[in-house]
Description:
The structure holds two protein chains of two kinds. Chain A is of the alpha+beta class. In chain A, the strands form five sheets. In chain A, strands 9, 10, 11, 12 and 15 form a five-stranded antiparallel sheet that branches. Chain A is globular. In chain A, a hairpin with a 5-residue loop joins β7 and β8. The two termini of chain A are 32 Å apart. Chain A has helices at 11-14, 32-43, 68-73, 78-81, 86-90, 96-99, 130-147, 230-233, 248-261, 265-274, 292-296, 320-324, 376-388, 449-457, and strands at 21-29, 60-66, 121-127, 150-159, 161-163, 166-168, 197-198, 204-205, 237-246, 343-344, 347-349, 366-373, 414-416, 427-429, 436-446. The longest helix of chain A is centred in the first third of the chain and has 18 residues, at 130-147. By secondary structure, chain B is of the alpha+beta class. Chain B folds into two domains: 4-131, no CATH class; 145-212, no CATH class. In chain B, strands 1, 2, 3, 4 and 5 form a five-stranded antiparallel sheet that branches. In chain B, β1 and β2 form a beta hairpin. Chain B is elongated. The N and C termini of chain B lie far apart (53 Å). In chain B, 23% of the residues are buried. At the A-B interface, β14 of A face α5 and α7 of B.
Amino acid sequence: xxxxxxxxxxxxxxxxxxxxxxxxxxxxxxxxxxxxxxxxxxxxxxxxxxxxxxxxxxxxxxxxxxxxxxxxxxxxxxxxxxxxxxxxxxxxxxxxxxxxxxxxxxxxxxxxxxxxxxxxxxxxxxxxxxxxxxxxxxxxxxxxxxxxxxxxxxxxxxxxxxxxxxxxxxxxxxxxxxxxxxxxxxxxxxxxxxxxxxxxxxxxxxxxxxxxxxxxxxxxxxxxxxxxxxxxxxxxxxxxxxxxxxxxxxxxxxxxxxxxxxxxxxxxxxxxxxxxxxxxxxxxxxxxxxxxxxxxxxxxxxxxxxxxxxxxxxxxxxxxxxxxxxxxxxxxxxxxxxxxxxxxxxxxxxxxxxxxxxxxxxxxxxxxxxxxxxxxxxxxxxxxxxxxxxxxxxxxxxxxxxxxxxxxxxxxxxxxxxxxxxxxxxxxxxxxxxxxxxxxxxxxxxxxxxxxxxxxxxxxxxx
Amino acid sequence: xxxxxxxxxxxxxxxxxxxxxxxxxxxxxxxxxxxxxxxxxxxxxxxxxxxxxxxxxxxxxxxxxxxxxxxxxxxxxxxxxxxxxxxxxxxxxxxxxxxxxxxxxxxxxxxxxxxxxxxxxxxxxxxxxxxxxxxxxxxxxxxxxxxxxxxxxxxxxxxxxxxxxxxxxxxxxxxxxxxxxxxxxxxxxxxxxxxxxxxxxxxxxxxxxxxx
Lengths: 463, 212
């Protein structure tokens, strides 16, 4: 059993904090010397993966990550800089041709802060409430000023969707989100069936640690590629950060309109898009109706496979969660999927519009999507290119993900496979509007605490 | 026979490239320049050789030994590598190349040693077969279908999805009438051009507008 060095790994890497408020501070490094000083000071405060005692959840957390340009600005040695993978060096904007970020998703339409390679540092503050969030954020800003090492370019706020004053796991389209992050070895929690990898006997086991954290064996029983010096890389990981705008009005209008023609009705159609009913019930397990008891049961709510539904008559072949994590849908007991998993740390941003209120596409709301993994190329970029923006692996030609794909006006469709049962008739959803638009993003590295100190002290030595 | 999988043929041809130190632009360079400028996709020459699923032309300079101790090994010549996955029989395919794109074939292979030209198809076929090596493994995701069948299937898939979208939920009698109109129009549709790049282009020639 892999043992993680929880004092060295950033907490954000090891677990979702489940804190309802967050601010992502996007900053540039002003000067290498002062920048390193800033990193040193931040390192003293960074939240580690250390276990929280019962009832001792912190009021706020702080984590930090860097783009490759950030490492350049901090003066890391050239021999270290060239040892990072090319996709990380290039950054998300330069990878638009790989990611399918064209049309509405073209970086030229991104928020100004993402237009140039000026975002060098990502600082994440998660907090229990707005006051604690403001307090911690102000502390970080004060550190930037005191050290003169970093300048704040912009803040991306994020928050759980509040309904009746309570934080919920909902996102703006009304789906309950955040199920099924991959289990991996070394995390101190009970394995939840459905979250790791399938074994030959059909059981679930945690994935190898090296799929998500550098310095540990991965699913190929190798150590993941690591920058030099090794100490800079181990216990760290990569992150794809994407601001995904949601066209809430378009989504609701489309569901309303097509839901009238679809035999199963609007809510079932929503379930056939996502692979989960809006309350979170997996449509694979409960094809006819949401099942609140099932949603609440962690032993069951992500415990399913697609092997007995190869025709997609429960969860469509192109359903969002089936695309993002096909489990055993491609055969070989899921072996083709184990190296393509991503660990999500997404959070909504913007005001939630209740279902009974008129929504507008142009309002500033969406998801701050963050995917962690040991290889951006093998995991995030592959999932984005092959499973989001293409359909061949799922035998769907060039159909894209119905919810988050980049749809061409009038051209893209989602096929809802069905049966002879009139309530589950097949249905073609054509002329898909683009429900989600990319508004910015970058590739980051979240170093270990040791690595942060090395960077801060200017003692990264590749020799 | 490893050159064939069902009706799909995996052809590999290695033709030695002429080595002539007296000319200003060497044959391999001239060939690279020529290949680089060939039109692509539906305008590519092999779109006219209608059995071609996929083909590739590569100038191979040399092969480099990887390992220790290093070895200085060289091919006796530079080679033109021609690989093609096509439907059907090799003789018919070579005859079709000679008939449909004689100028392109001459332009390319005239840089190769011993090339007889296409004027005598038998000599051409004998030359190509002489340069052929066995294809030990190949993959062509074409389900043992002809190019025409494959393009037709793509077209049918796109059009049928559009038909379903426009007509789903209609009463059976109406649906049947609409389907028969659709089917008739589909059959009348001109076939897709080989090498067409995107399904969006296919859709342009489509039969949408089946809805009442």
